[in-house]
Amino acid sequence: MLLLVGLGNPGGKYARHRHNVGFMAADAIADAHGFGPARAKFQGEVRDGTIGGEKALILKPQTFMNDSGRSVGEAVRFYKIAPEDVIVFYDELDLAPGKIKMKTGGGAAGHNGIRSIDAHIGNGFRRVRIGIGHPGDKSRVTGHVLGDFAKADQDWLEPLLDAIASEAPYLAEPDNNRFQTAVAHKLAPPKKSAPAKKEPASESKPAEPNTPSKTALNVFAEVFKKRGDKE
Predict the structure, then answer these.
(1) Model pTM greater than 0.85?
(2) Residue positions annotated with a catalytic role
(3) Confidence class of residue 226 from pLDDT cuts 50, 70 and 90?
(4) 168: Cβ–Cβ under 8 A, 6 or more apart, which residues?
């Protein structure tokens, strides 16, 4: 069984925050693959379904970001899920907007939601880091992370969420690299077809002047020669 965890903060006022992009990814997957309706369980919101033929549970912890591990830990213990079958989707400042990176294990890199999950189930779970970009100044980080996505962000955000959802079956194989590559490929702009090669214009030979053929000239020569002989 897979446990797909989207990280974020509960409540309408946080819904469009960049920090909630993990919630958005979880919802996109659940909707695209026909998961059941949301219900409250494990101090979170859960939906049941299948991904790539594997039974899966999508979990959105409602404990607020910094305590996400309490919700994830309850679900892991209840279903006896191995860490490598836990996949967590969350925001990443140090990735460009619209990019994803996936890995298994590693540190929290300052993300409080990941740090909380590490504390409850260890760090052997799989992580899908979703780039939200860095504002460029450390003093602006909090406002950036806890701010709504701008209208212009929809140009890359919606296609990214659609790509994550459509390629999610690779997570069940499990194949981190293939999932990451498939998402990138889906987001790549279509290649422009090469213009058709023009055939070189055929060089038409200039028409030859209307001159007598060699055969005709020979005949004339014979006639004049005979006349000369008779004279």
Answers:
(1) no
(2) 19
(3) low
(4) 4, 29, 32, 33, 51, 52, 179
